[in-house]
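Look at one record.

>
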Amino acid sequence: MIIGFTYDLKDDYLAEGFSELEVAEFDTTETIFSIRDTLENLGHSVILVGNAKALLKRLAAGERWDLVFNICEGVKGFGREAQIPAILDVFELPYVFSDPLVMSLTLHKGFTKRIIRDLGIPTAPFEIVQHVADAESVELPFPLFVKPVAEGTGKGIGHDSKISDKAELIKVCRRLLSNFSQPVLVETFLPGREITVGIVGTGDSSRVIGMMEVLWKNSGISGIYSYHSKANYQGLIEYQVPESELYQRCAEVALASWKGLGCRDGGRIDLRLDAAGVPNFLEVNPLAGLNPVHSDLPILAGKAGIEFKELIDMILQSAMERVGAHK
């Protein structure tokens, strides 16, 4: 099979003047080459395509592939992760991972939580702050937790994300609205354990392949899974597989969320337990990081005995079965 490989290379955007924070979700050459080499080791021919603009140029020149392996995050707007899938839909080319609807919906954490809530899946009460004045009228009980509504990799999350009073809420919302030019999600703070769940498959074929709890090596640390802590996880965090009873309860919530949102092929669901120990939906990652060493999905898969090559093959097989492709 000939696979076109689309990605956003971090170094390319840094060379264009983007900041380190702006390119936090983009991939390094290490990740790109690891995925390419793995796909080739699985017996496929891989064409490195690049980002959305490079894809458009190649499609306009008449290039086509049997399947596209897409890990592009996109650059601007709530639909940025949907750009590649939308282009490929126009050209009727099959691809790995979710479609434009799912990619756009799930990037917006507030809209996603509305769907999850309507599905009857536990998720913390929340409000969406569009303007500073909205923060003044938030009626949720403290403590609260705030973050940009459409960022990944812990961007915009830090030691001040846990809010204890109205003045602090207004101050932090004002800063986030200014820095990220997007609404702020305000949620009831969940005090329990944090679990991330790996899923492979689509619809009724979806299955949990593993999960891990985020634990802090130093009990004095705030315990907020932020951009800083994710980037420096080896010194700050350790991961462990939850006990079987909690594992089962988290698996049920994660699978219901994955299927209810219409996600495809592979990704992660992040959960946190409330004060009663009930797993609550935090967010979904339908375009989860795939660095073989540092990304959560490969790490939790490894803890379940699934090597990186097998993980990539499982994701690829899901896409191939879904579109009726053959090796």
In short: The first strand starts at residue 2 and ends at 6. The CA atoms of residues 8 and 51 lie 5 Å apart. Residues 244-261 form the longest helix (18 residues).
